Each structure stands twice: as structure tokens, then as C-alpha cells.
Amino acid sequence: MKRATRAVVAVLATTATLSFVVQPVQAGGKDQTLRSAAPRDLRIGTAVAGGGHHVDQPYPDPFPNDKPYRQVLAKEFNSASPENQMKWEFIHPERNKYNFGPADAIVRFARDNGQAVRGHTLLWHSQNPAWLNEGTFTEAELRKILKDHITKVVGRYKGKIHQWDVANEIFNENGEYRQENIFIRELGPGIVADAFRWAHQADPKAQLFLNDYGVEWPGVKVDAYETLAKQLLAARVPLHGFASQAHLSMRYGAPDQLAGVLQRFDNLGLKTAITELDVRMDLPEGGVPTAEQLATQATYYKTVLDACLAVDDCNSFTIWGFTDKYSWVPVFFPSEGAATVMWEDFTKKPAYYALRDTLAAARGHGHGHGHGHH
Ligand code: G3I
How many CB atoms sit inside 10 A of residue 169's CB? Predict the structure, then answer.
């Protein structure tokens, strides 16, 4: 703890970015929030709802319009991840047109509220604009398109982004490179290293991550990431972290091997993070979860948090939305839902209290993980 605290202070002293504002120390008790309960070296984040599936829903875009939502967002979290607003189709809708407004608004909000930002994402197979998916480009053109995009987007937020998901979901379930990824398909897997290099050039202080789902248990996908991480590090590519999204379903059991997975990447000298945690369940008729389901859900959330707390350099823990009002889950999985820690009116579920109490206990025990390699 001591060493970690000193390291954090050093970072605060030398980093002029506003995403590292000191958190006021709050006493425990009823006024505690997730961010105030958390150990000082662990960021507690959420996805910031907007774009994507929200566009088809019968409500206005959440982040700009829902005031109570923004209040909870500011109060409970000290890290924010644009849910869709930094994805290619959103931020780069035409070849010669960028749409920075919505992402700028999130970065500004985060600065005003002492929140770090996780940038999401630069190299992905999904949510790319039609001009990119359907265009005809030479290899040299496509390479330049990717380099220009990364340089421009990462450069715009230089010094304001804590962590970037540089490469998102690049392996399939068999641990093979995803051929749906236009850049990997057309340019070969070596493009992953280039994406990290370009991002690092544009913002040398941002921590650069590999990010995926389906890596919560050991298996071929985790093996593929471990092999890639070793290769990139051996080649001195600026890779800084490995993240588990942790989209969980109660159909598939508790994430009880996650700490072991994270530890394998920590052993390589990488930071680790939880980036998109939610826990969906099959809803009974009537749509209201049982008390037993809610209790199980709370243990899943706690198990993921415990995994992060158990690993030295796991310094960011993000849930993929905090209220069922805006969750992506029922849109993708029609019979499942209730995946977040708050009901639609922002009242709290057992999962919320499980996270808060676990954070408070870790902080109370002088928990000081992270920054061990500095
Ligand atoms: O692009 C089509 C459009 O052509 C069509 O007219 C419209 C009709 O429904 O759908 C559009 O696709 C939507 C897409 O966002 C693009 O905007 C999908 O319906 C919509 O469901 C999708 O939602 C987002 C999803 O990523 C896309 O994969 C969600 O809002 C967002 O929460 C979700 O987030 C991802 C992370 O980025 C990566 N990890 C998994 C996570 C959950 O899927």
C-alpha cells in the first residue's frame, strides 16, 4: 500500500492532465458511493450511454438528455467509457468527415467531474462506417486510412485518455484472428502492432490495451492473447494492458477463474482491467428477477471485482452501463435482462451494494495494488 500510494502521488504530481484529479477522501456510511468507497489506485467506471442500440429506442439519446442519469454518472464513477461515441461509424461517419461533438462532450463532462476516460475503440470488426466496409482500397490506402484515423482521434484527446482499447475482439472463439476485421483481413495480423505504435505516437501517456470478451476462463482465446502479448512485448511494441470485458450470463456459471487469467497477463508486466462488466439472467414471466437471482448476480459482480483486487496491476474496473433503463442486453438477448446494478429508476440492486461493500473493505484494509512495476 505504501509504495503504491507514493507512486500515485508521484503520478499526480507529474501529470498535469485533469483525468487524474485527487479524489476527496470521504468517510464511510450512507453517503458512500462506488467511487468514494474504492481504493485510491482503482478507477471505477461505467459505459456512458448513447449511440448504438439507443438510436432505435423510444427515448432521446441518454447522456446529453437525461439529467438524473448524468447526476448518478458523476456521483458514482471516476472513470467513463463512451459506449458508442468513439467508435468508427460514430466518430468518422464519412471518409473526410469526423463527428467529434458527442465524444468531446463526454471528455468535458469527465474533466469537470474528476473522471478518467477509457477510449473505445480503434481497431475492431464491428460498427465500422459503410464507406469503410464497402469501399475499395489498395493496401497502402487502407493502411493510411487506419493510421490517419488513429492519429487524428487519439491526438485530439491527447493527455485526456487514461486507457485506450486499441485492439478490440481481434480473436474468434478458436483463438484465430477474426477475418471479419477488415484491417486484419486485408493487411494481415501485423497491423495490430502498427495500431499500437500509431496510438502511442499520438498520445505517449495513454495506456494501450487489448480488449475482448470470452476471456474470463482459461482456454484457447486466452492462450492466443498471451502469445500475442509476449510477441508484442518482445518486439517492443507499446502494449500496456490486457482487459477482460466480462459480459457475463448466469446461464454459464460464475467467473471463478478470472483472477488466474488476469494474473497471467500481470506476470508479463502488463496492467489488467475489467472494461464492460454486466451480468444478465433469464427473466421469469412478468420480467421481474427473483430474490435468489439477484443474490446470484451480486456474487458474480463481486467475484469479478475480487479478481481485479487480487491482481497487482488491475487498476480500472468498468461496468457496461449502471442502469437497466439503458442496457444493451435486452436488445441483443430478448429473454434476458436486468444485467446492471441499478433498476430503471436508479434504485440499487444487491449487486450495487456487493460492489460498494467490497470496495470499502479493500480500501479499509489499506489495499494497495497496482503500480508495482514503476
Ligand atoms: O448499424 C445498424 C443500422 O444499419 C441499422 O439500421 C440499425 C437497426 O437496428 O442497427 C444498427 O446497428 C446497431 C449498432 O449498435 C450500430 O449503431 C445495433 O442495432 C445496436 O444493437 C448496436 O449496439 C451497440 C453494440 O455494441 C454493437 O456491437 C451497443 O449500443 C453497445 O453497447 C455495444 O457495446 C459492445 C462493445 O462496444 C464491445 N464489446 C461488446 C459490447 C456489447 O455488445
Answer: 21
pTM above 0.85, yes or no: yes
- In the set 276, 285, 292, 336, the catalytic residue is 276
Catalytic position from the list 76, 89, 169, 216: 169
Q: Which atom of ligand 1 is nearest to the CA of 328?
A: 32
What gap in Å lies between CA 227 and CA 232, rounded to an integer? 9
Closest approach atom of ligand 1 to CA 87: 37
User: What pLDDT sits at residue 365?
Assistant: 84
Cα of 52 to ligand 1 centre, how many Å? Answer: 4
Task: Compute, in angstroms, the gap from residue 49 CA to the centroid of ligand 1.
Answer: 12
Contact at 8 Å (CB) between 75 and 65?
Answer: no
pLDDT digits (tens, 9 = 90+) for 346-365: 999 999 999 999 999 999 88
Percentage, residues of the chain above pLDDT 70: 90
The verdict on whether 169 is a catalytic residue reads yes
| Sign of the Cα pseudo-torsion (170, 173, 178, 180, in order) | negative
Domain 3-21+32-364 in this protein, CATH class: alpha beta
* pLDDT value of position 28: 59
Above 60 in pLDDT, residue 216? yes
d(CA 45, CA 23): 14
| β partners of residue 43 | 316
Q: Regarding beta strands 116-123 and 247-249, do their DSSP bridges make them parallel or antiparallel, or are they unpaired? A: unpaired
For the stretch 70-80, pLDDT in tens is: 999 999 999 99
Task: In whole angstroms, give the CA distance from residue 212 to residue 251.
Answer: 19
220, 171 in Cβ contact below 8 A? no
pLDDT at 9: 38
- List pocket residues of ligand 1, CB cut-off 6 Å: 52-53, 56, 83-84, 126-127, 213, 245, 276, 328, 331
Distance CA 185, CA 179 (A): 5
Asked whether the beta carbons of 346 and 72 are under 8 A apart, the reply is yes
Cα–ligand 1 centroid distance for 51 (angstroms) = 8
Nearest CA to ligand 1 atom 43: 328
Tell me the C-alpha to C-alpha distance, in Å, between residue 288 and each of 14, 251, 253, 295.
49, 17, 20, 14
* 276 in catalytic set: yes
Of 46, 48, 53, the residue with max ligand 1 atoms within 8 A of its CB, to mutate for a pocket test, comes to 53
On average, the pLDDT of the chain sits at 92
